[in-house]
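Fresh eyes needed here. Have a critical look at this protein's tokenised backbone.
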Amino acid sequence: MILPALAALALPAPQADDADLRVAQLRDAALEDDYAYAITEAITTELGPRLAGTAEEARARKWAVTTLTRMGFKNVRDEPFPLKTWVRGVERAMVVGENSQPLVLTALGNSGATPAAGLTGEVVFFPTLDDLKDAPDGSLAGKIAFVSHAMTRTQDGSQYGYYGAVRRQGPAIAAAKGAAAILIRSVGTDSHRMPHAGSTVFPEGTAPIPAAALAVPDADQLERLVGRGAPVRVALTLTPRIVGTQNSGNVVAEVPGRDPAAGIVVVACHLDSWDLGTGAIDDASGCGIVAAAAKRIMDAGRPRRTIRVLWAGSEEVGVFGGKAYFDAHKGDNHVLAAESDFGADRIWRLDTNFAPANKPLADRLAAALAPLGISAGRDPAGGGADVSALVSAGVAGVDLQQDGTRYFDLHHTPDDTLDKVDPAQMRQNVAAWTAMLAVVADAPEAISATK
């Protein structure tokens, strides 16, 4: 059975003629929303993990087409694209010798493999990525590099960009210096024995080495052992593999507008997830939020602009769905793009990249969102990973910034499960997205980005 809770939900259309009152009615009604949670519950329960390019992701796309069609969206389709697909295998690590003990870790996406019997090497510790960069060429031959970092919690999650480089770049740097393998402190802010997955990149010509993220307490433990001064050796077994080119895909659905010349508003999330948890906050909740908000607008009457819902595929392994969408649709008349991909905790800030002529529109947005405790920010909107190519190409963007204080406690871990979604905060998200769509989809003026 697919989304049994949805059938019982009715969305009454507002009767007011005044545009501001209509937006307020739609916004306030959405504070009682149950669609978003029902979608999130169904994705995480009926589908579970959805690693890009796998049969599980394909099943999720088929489910999504059926579900969005039953919700009343039009032009629902799966838009497939090819993907070189990586899957994990055995993951095991053990400190060997006098202080023998197991370590909890997970392979990074695109990691190379050890021999089937594993490898053993001496650990060389680097407190930061810069320290690894400074290591002499060839100095890590036969060794296991171990790189730490100092990421901490922030409301806007801004440290992820900087400290995430340990995961994105560290393995390739270690490989270039001759390392047999690399371990990193998970790019996260928790204190649980839950490793954080995530992709790394090996440039053309660099042979992938085994690369894994240690759970934060295990990284602390290994750092303490190294700090005692005696050599530390780790036995490591990782057996991920590339299974060849498979199909991934984007699922697209629409609320057709009454004025095709007015353009398309894209609201996005990503349907794929890492395979350790069930992808609740990353990003089933985002798919629930944008679909619920778009449905509320659809059920309230036909908007001026078409609203296009994009449930992107293969975001986690390289934003391939967003790239495929841009390549397939860059000729479409997009006027605005936004994405929900930062969990389901409350939205606290609005950012846009509107042209100066659209200041009245930005002001109306800010006024519509203020009753939800959302303030207007000053940073230019980027739109989100899967719509970033559109925004870079000149499409206007809106960022509804969620509170990320606890996001990187859960991000890419086995702990990313439905119980971490707060229904009350999710309702505030749906109300914000509904208000945003009610304003921009019916805005009488043209919408453009700042140059």
Summary: The mean pLDDT is 95. The chain has two domains: 4-86+244-441, 89-239.
